[in-house]
Amino acid sequence: MNRIKVNLEKKQSKSYDIYIGQDILDRAGLLLAKNNWAARYIIVTDSNVETLHGNRVLENLRGMGIKTDMISFPAGEASKTMATALGVVERLTELGADRTSALIALGGGVVGDLTGFVASLYMRGIPCVQIPTTLLAQVDSSIGGKTGIDLPVGKNFLGTFCQPKGVFIDLAFLETLAPREFGNGLAEIVKYGVIDDAELLDSLEREIGTLRGDRKLLERIISKACRIKKGIVEIDETEKGLRRILNFGHTIGHAVEAESKYALSHGEAVAIGMTAAVLLSEKLKYLLTEDRERVVSLIGAAGLPGRIPPGMSTDGILSRTKQDKKKAGATVHFVLLKKPGMPFVNGGVPEDLVREVVEEMKR
Ligand SMILES: NC(=O)c1ccc[n+]([C@@H]2O[C@H](COP(=O)([O-])OP(=O)(O)OC[C@H]3O[C@@H](n4cnc5c(N)ncnc54)[C@H](O)[C@@H]3O)[C@@H](O)[C@H]2O)c1
Predict the structure, then answer these.
(1) Sign of torsion over alpha carbons 258, 261, 267, 269
(2) CB within 6 Å of ligand 1 — which residues?
(3) pTM for this entry
(4) From its phi and psi, is residue 341 left (phi > 0), alpha (psi between -120 and 50) or beta?
(5) CATH 1.20.1090.10: which residues of the chain?
(6) Which atom of ligand 1 is nearest to the CA of 143?
(7) Which atom belonging to ligand 1 lies closest to the Cα atom of 75?
């Protein structure tokens, strides 16, 4: 089992460990028992994960003498709401959860974000442990302490920064994950390779086709991805600066995802967004053509799309990029690339150029 420490230096008490391995639930239970974070735990999960893995995790923890209960809500982004959060709070009060209790987020990013959100507010804050079960949650959302729920006005509109006590990444959960969900995590892994790490980029170029079937390789790549995310979070815990480079591919990505009415998965949309970002970077003469081609071929090798569906409205995409809540003032921020491993935030991409790239990507 790999252990990666997330050092939040300003407040060491907020630092925590990420544990990564295959079938590590027993070890996770031992660490929960040993660490004494809480007198009892409540697993919060969604309906799919409850059926597939919930009882196994519950019984495992109970079998180690850890007082544990479980509550669940319907799976899917549509559940990431205040109503669900209040429903979870109601169940917690029925179970008698108090300040000596802690929550365990068992699931994908929806469960992780919503459970972290509730934990950060319940009785002014109780501890939360993350057990991510999707590839996206394992390499991205479970690390970094961003929690949130969606409002009609926008995704993740209400949220907190609240670091977990620990993150337990068990690769065994991925065996039941649908290929499209696996692709969502893969898109984020490709992003890390492109924005941060030449070694990861090389290794993905060689091995991305065999990743899912090769547990050792997968463990290595997930560990690498977690190290990259934790490195960025350590420098910029509350997304004031550097952490914004993690939005690489997400400006156009969010726009096409919403414009497709979520027919495109998040990973597919981010892949399209990364393609747009490298094309813009090339046209603005920041990025060499050969580097743009490298990124585009990796996206293809990952089985992710690089084209915008031809029927999608260019005006619709452009207007949605301006609505992206991550813009500051009137300027739409794009994370562009000077070369692999060297991203930067550019606030001044001319709209005509964005239009040209979108049109080109529809052909
Ligand atoms: N906090 C952050 O920093 C951060 C970062 C990225 C994304 N997010 C959030 O994460 C969410 C997306 O996360 P996601 O892609 O994990 O979606 P998700 O949580 O909806 O999970 C996707 C689907 O997979 C199912 N599932 C989960 N684990 C499974 C398993 N092991 N086997 C089979 N099915 C399983 C779920 O029930 C769900 O139907 C979004 O709400 C996004 O805003 C947060």
Answers:
(1) negative
(2) 46, 48-49, 52, 75-77, 80, 107-111, 113, 133-134, 136-137, 140-141, 144, 146, 155-156, 173, 176-177, 181, 184
(3) 0.95
(4) left
(5) 180-363
(6) 3
(7) 37
Both tokens of residue 164?
């977990």
Residue 112 alpha carbon to ligand 1 centre in Å: 8
The preferred substitution site among 55, 56, 79, 136 for testing ligand 1, maximizing ligand atoms within 8 Å of CB, is 136
Residue 328: band (very low, low, confident or very high) from pLDDT cuts 50, 70, 90: very low
Select the CATH number that applies to the domain covering 2-177 from these four: 3.50.30.60, 3.40.50.10700, 3.40.50.1970, 2.60.120.10.
3.40.50.1970
Burial class (CB in 10 A: 0-12, 13-18, 19+), 254: buried
Question: Which residue ranges does the chain devote to CATH 3.40.50.1970?
Answer: 2-177
CA of 49 to the centre of ligand 1 (A): 10
93 burial via Cβ count (<10 Å: 0-12, 13-18, 19+): exposed
> Architecture of 180-363 per CATH?
Up-down Bundle (1.20)
Q: Active-site residue numbers?
A: 124, 146, 188, 229, 239, 243, 247, 250, 254, 266
Residue with tokens 């949605």: 320
Atom of ligand 1 nearest to the CA of 156: 43
Total Cβ atoms within 10 A of residue 226: 23
Angle subtended by helix axes 351-362 and 314-323, to nearest 10: 130
Q: What is the pLDDT of residues 119-169, one digit of tens each?
A: 999 999 999 999 999 999 999 999 999 999 999 988 899 999 999 999 999
